[in-house]
Amino acid sequence: METQVLIIGGGAAGCMMARELSRYKVDVTLVEKRPDVGFGVSKASNGYLYWGMSWNVSIVLKSIVEQIGGATKEAEHKKEEMNRRGYELWKPLLTELDIPHLWTPVMQLATNPAELRLLDMLEKETVARNMPYRRLNKEEILELEPNVTDKVIAGLYDDSHGWYNVYPWEQVIAVAENARQNGIKFMLDTEVIGFSKNGGFQIVETTRGPIKTEFVINATGADAVHVARLADACDFSLQHFKAHTIITDKKTRNLVNGSVAILAGPGRLKSVNPVQSGNLLISSIYTPTDSPHDLGTDKALMEELFGMAQDVLPPLSKKDVIAYFAVSRVYSARNPDEYIIEFAPKNPRFINMVLRMPGFIPMPVIARNVVGMLSDHGLQMTKKDDFNPYRKRIPRFADLSSEERSKLIKQDPRYGHVVCRCETVTEGEIVEAIRRGANTVDGVKFRTRAGMGRCQAGFCGPRVVEIIARELNIKPTEVTKNGGNSWELLCESKELLTTRKAVLA
Ligand SMILES: Cc1cc2nc3c(=O)[nH]c(=O)nc-3n(C[C@H](O)[C@H](O)[C@H](O)COP(=O)(O)OP(=O)(O)OC[C@H]3O[C@@H](n4cnc5c(N)ncnc54)[C@H](O)[C@@H]3O)c2cc1C
Fold it and tell me: Residue 476 CA to chain centroid, in angstroms?
């Protein structure tokens, strides 16, 4: 196989890069080792798109930057500029790509003198950057957010920039679908395992055979060091910080009107954020970890995180929790503020593209910059006349009016069959998700929300397995949660009976 540019990694970075390149007459292929896009760190991200006062929160709580060391003003400024521009570029993108999102105002609170000092620092940074905000007293805070702690003594409010709450997998899937529409080739379940050179070309060895290419973009996130080393293209190292996240039931949605947080000290942002689906998302505790793939949750940390959310919003109860998970964020070990976007020193046709947090916000800017880097290094970049920036999402039955529902059911009666009762997801949506590339239970879940409700797939799980098996013409025992050997079913029960009989005999 031959391609001009090979992108390795189908996360937020690789997919946005693919979409950006799909504007040009260039042959591009993306390889991803998992069976779907966004199954790496991106799926477990918070996916918030923010600017304004919220940006300054990380400046006040600089704890990761301080833990790693090596930060420079230049890298901090560059990071800030890319995120400012990225936030602006996302606004039209959300519409063009029909990505569901919820915009909310943001409130930062203080409940004691130590927190007040941090709030004052936040105000100073916000004024220094000429960003709009309002200082609120206790009465004003409780009028806007009646359920937050009554210990609150002061607050800052940003209702001009605010915060776009977007599910990260919906961003990645939308961007990938649009890139595919515009001619990018996606090879899923394809892992890069080695590199060699052939004249001016690079030969990338994959689990599906070699690919000959001019340029390589290494967008493998937490695996970037491993992949760059395979190509002798690594002069950086990464540090990993594990972050825990909790999701609450939709019935908690009305407890807040926007994102609410307390700056409580280094590494301690007590925050509660409503997301577009109606749930609340609680996250922020992070701890150093050696393994990029350390997904283990820690009971004590979860309890602590939940307690921090209750400090902001006392009516929250543990009974409201419906899901929780952990995942690692990556940071460059040489400078925690930097995004590693550069040609490898020993290979002028190999770009390392490693995103620190936030990675979604600056991605449209980074993708444009990389196009410039490729062009500077000799890749002919001619714009296509027929690039189509629009994609349409799968209709979400739960969000439609009665008339829209009836119309859809008339066109396809499978939209009249509700499979996931918690999220009101129909068979029609699931079949459409599979048609668009979902081949696992998670792939269906991320495209339709089937299994994301209170019962966490307790009821719809088996039905989704059945539909995937039927549509892909495979056995139910071959259906996986997210690829590899994550089978949903161990074997057929009759098979089990025969094995048992044989053992007993
Ligand atoms: C808890 C948390 C919260 C966050 N919140 C935000 C936020 O609110 N806003 C924001 O902007 N950013 C946020 N971020 C940061 C953002 O999520 C990341 O920067 C972004 O998702 C990184 O995307 P990526 O494509 O670089 O990595 P990934 O999504 O991990 O993608 C890398 C891909 O490469 C594939 N791969 C690896 N090795 C190989 C190989 N050998 N061959 C083929 N494929 C391979 C992997 O399977 C994976 O799919 C958050 C991050 C975390 C962890």
Answer: 29
- Tokens 């094995």 map to which residue? 499
Q: Are the C-beta atoms of residues 305 and 267 closer than 8 Å to each other?
A: no
Q: What is the number of the ligand 1 atom nearest to the C-alpha of 14?
A: 25
CATH, range 102-164+239-332:
3.30.9.10
The structural architecture, per CATH, of the domain 1-97+166-237+334-393 is 3-Layer(bba) Sandwich (3.50)
Whole-angstrom Cα distance, residue 356 to residue 310?
29
User: What confidence tens digit (pLDDT) does each residue in 180-197 have?
Assistant: 999 999 999 999 999 998
Average pLDDT over residues 1-16: 98
- Which ligand 1 atom is the nearest neighbour of the CA of 222? 30
Inter-CA distances, 369 with 190, 307, 345, 377, 381, Å: 27, 42, 18, 13, 13
CA of 228 to the centre of ligand 1 (A): 16
The pair of three-digit structure tokens given for residue 494, joined into one six-digit string? 């009759």
In the chain, what are the domain boundaries?
1-97+166-237+334-393, 102-164+239-332, 397-494
Closest Cα to atom 21 of ligand 1: 42
- pLDDT by residue (tens digit) across 310-341? 999 999 999 999 999 999 999 999 999 999 99
Token pair of 24 as six digits: 């040009």
57-74 mean pLDDT: 88
HSE-CB of 376 using CA atoms within 13 angstroms: 10
- The token duo for 496 is 């089990």
34 lines ligand 1 (CB under 6 A): yes
The pTM of the whole model exceeds 0.85: yes
Query: pLDDT digits over 17-45, tens only?
Result: 999 999 999 999 999 999 999 999 999 99
Q: Is domain 397-494 in CATH 2.60.120.200, yes or no?
A: no
Query: Which residue among 7, 15, 36, 41 is best mutated to probe the pocket of ligand 1, counting the most ligand atoms within 8 A of its Cβ?
Result: 41
Residue nearest to atom 5 of ligand 1 (CA): 46
Q: Is the dihedral of CA 46, 50, 54, 57 positive or negative?
A: positive
